[in-house]
Design goal:
One of its GO terms (molecular function) is carbohydrate binding. Belongs to the bacterial solute-binding protein 2 family. This is Periplasmic binding protein domain-containing protein. It is found in: Periplasm. One of its GO terms (cellular component) is outer membrane-bounded periplasmic space. This protein is α/β, with parallel strands linked by helices. The protein folds into two domains: about 100 residues, Rossmann fold; about 100 residues, Rossmann fold. Helix content is about 45%, strand content about 20%. The longest helix has 19 residues. The relative contact order is 0.13.
């Protein structure tokens, strides 16, 4: 009989609906293939995530699937995992300065282009506010690069004016809401479009 594969799934923040859906799909598929999955959420805290990964290593998992809160700080725990012969997969977000086995993601710059283009199609001129994702998430920077590819020609022509630019800590909607309230106050409510980098930040932005 084949050995049961044990997978540790370390998730950035299960308060975000997107990760809840990804967790459910991943766990259901892995279990259907005979694997056992241990899931933990760091709730947007890098120290918590490092501790959780160490706990999974100590539990003897065979594979680590990590959605990092901060991909810059995990090199030491990844080194520990590799020393134990554990395979490491970075899911959606890159883990930097670490010997990972796999990296699965999207073309995040293209995603940013599509986000900006959908707004430009509806609001081809006016005051734009840029609401980026978490400042410690490399994907947020890739989204922004793609967004600016689309927006820059309109900015250069004077059709679009960028009246503000903020990053949303943890991608949390409550943080996006506070940023949006301050932005509206600072601009006398004269904001025509908000380039939000995911559903959670967009959800916070539309509340005021």
């Amino acid at each position: 009989m084949a050995k049961e594969v044990k997978i540790g799934m370390a998730i950035d923040d299960l308060r975000l609906e997107r990760w809840q859906k990804d967790r459910d799909i991943f766990v259901n598929k892995a279990e259907s293939l005979g694997a056992k999955v241990f899931v933990q959420s760091a709730n947007g805290n890098e120290e918590t995530q490092m501790s959780q990964i160490e706990n999974m290593i100590n539990r003897g998992v065979d594979v680590l699937v990590i959605i990092p809160y901060n991909g810059q700080v995990l090199s030491n725990v990844i080194k520990e995992a590799k020393q134990e012969g554990i395979k490491v997969l970075a899911y959606d977000r890159m883990i930097n300065n670490a010997d990972i086995d796999f990296y699965i993601s999207f073309d995040n710059e293209k995603v940013g282009e599509m986000q900006a283009q959908s707004l430009v199609d509806k609001v081809p001129q006016g005051n734009y506010f840029l609401m980026g994702g978490s400042p410690v998430d490399n994907n947020a920077k890739l989204f922004r690069a793609g967004q600016m590819k689309v927006l820059k020609p309109y900015v250069d022509e004077g059709k679009i004016k960028i009246v503000g630019d903020q990053w949303v800590d943890g991608w949390l909607p409550e943080n996006a809401l506070k940023i949006m309230e301050n932005a509206l106050t600072a601009n006398n409510n004269k904001i025509d479009a908000v380039v939000a980098s995911n559903d959670a930040t967009a959800g916070g932005a539309i509340q005021p």
